[in-house]
Design brief:
Helix content is about 75%, strand content about 0%. The chain is an all-alpha fold. The protein has two domains: about 90 residues, no CATH class; about 130 residues, Four Helix Bundle (Hemerythrin (Met), subunit A).
Length: about 300
Amino acid sequence: MNILILKNRVKGVIDLIRPFTLLAPIIVSTCIMMASFFHNGKKDDLFLMLIKIIMPASFSLALLNGASNALNQLTDVETDKLSKPYRPIPRGTISIREAKTISIILYILSFCLAVYVGFIFTVFILLITLFTITYSLPPKLKNHLFLNQIWVGVPRGLLGILASWSVFGNPLEPLPLSIALIAMFFLIGGSSTKDILDSDADKKTGVHTLVNTFGVKKAALISLPFMFFPFVMIPLLISNGLLSDGLWFLTFLAIPSFFVFRAMFKEKRSKFFENTPAWTLMYTTYFVFAFGFSFLTIIA
């Protein structure tokens, strides 16, 4: 019986931090750091840097994401009771107090790893932390229309990529800034995909999203330009010298971005993940963007 309780609690902790969403900071940050390493002509041993710097930095971002996931769940209990009663807090596996403790521990671990990596990286981690806290706690910008999407896109796109680039290079150069802005706009639009299944519950608990304010179809139409045009604009960025010529391949990501838009009309849960197929495709597109950018930058 004790073993069964232990298993349930371990599963509750895992569900609280939502490990699939931690893949995004790990994959994206590792790709960006590798690109920064080669782009800036570092002569250090790559394997050594992977162990000493890249892994701690990527885990710092992943733990920060896990901390924000736990914080979001403990402040969204009423919404989750309506739309996601299987989550650990509504079903009683993890208490609010325990979730708060887990969130604080993860924030502290993320900060400690950031300090180890470097000063500029730590500054970005603190900025991202500020966004995650104000998203879930007062002024709780998750509740406010349009601001809730910006509060997802800025830390996860702009600041996350600049933080990763800063490990080996100057984050304020045109290349990382351009890539980070593309990611930011894509995630501002793509973040609507997570609100589809929560539409009714969000409305009942005072959360105003594009989906529950305008309906799924209008929300998809509003989100489309943010997901589609950043990739379409890549040739223009190249012609103005902000991106290197080889990165024009990333323009093709406008195609899966359009399919994210199409998938938003299918208001159903994914067979494999707790959100919609549109949400899964959005994250997959983001992974491909980070990997493609890294690969093309390295071979250049």
